[in-house]
Design goal:
mainly alpha
Length: 78
């Protein structure tokens, strides 16, 4: 029983052996889509388009809210 726990400790510790040995932290390879977007610098273009869409949606919501406020004020005054 004691041998099994010692063996488990070794297996649990081996995951970090490469880090402590100076080999660096293992990293995951990027997916195919990420590799294409990063290789051709399209990732920043996609990010910019998504941000523009979000800003457009927020602008639409703010403008609609202001119009509703004006409409509510005019409805209360009449």
């Amino acid at each position: 029983m004691q041998e099994a726990t010692a063996d488990q400790e070794v297996k649990e510790g081996t995951a970090y052996d490469s880090v402590w040995a100076g080999q660096g932290v293992p990293t995951q390879e990027p997916s195919v889509v990420e590799a294409v977007l990063l290789k051709e610098d399209k990732l920043y273009t996609v990010l910019a388009v998504v941000l523009i869409i979000w800003f457009g949606i927020m602008l639409f919501i703010v403008r609609t809210d202001r119009k509703l406020d004006r409409l509510e004020k005019s409805e209360r005054s009449t």
